[in-house]
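Possible regression after last week's pipeline update?

I re-ran a chain I had predicted before the update to compare outputs. Posting the input and the new output here so someone can diff against the archived version. Not blocking, just want to make sure nothing changed silently.
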Amino acid sequence: MMATVAPRGQVRALAPADTDRYCNHLVRLDPAARRMRFFEEVSDFHVLFHAGAALSDGRAVVGYVEDDEVRGACELLETDRAQHGAEAAFSVENDWRCRGIGGLLMAAMIDDARRRGVLRIEMQCLKSNAPMQALAARFTSDLRQIGDTTLAVLDNSPEITAA
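New output (post-update):
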């Protein structure tokens, strides 16, 4: 078991000016982490295209930034405006895992979602992604096994507080 090391960076909203940093973060993901983030093996081109779109199409991206480099991120994509629903996706580089960064990103994403009026957040991960399932379980008890994936559903109503 790895010991948790206190992060020394900051969690902040990423903006279009952070596109290069976000692209570099996603490209640095090792093959297993990239597969867990995108659910399949994807090319560098796909990753670069995705990062550029994420920071320009209106979705919220919160990043963990240390030494001016994005080392972890969470994207929040509104999926159902009428039902106030959104989907979240996370990535943390291998050398920055087990430091509490996922929890910091999750808390920041939940706060940002609440400010945006998002009442339901879905997070989907591969069934083999135990770290993401453990992170989700800290914030919701609604985890559903669906085929090769796990779906975590977080009620983000104002009266619900995070664990």
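Follow-up from reviewer: compared with the archived run. The beta strands are 10-13, 60-66, 69-80, 85-92, 120-126, 143-146, 149-155. Marking as no regression found.
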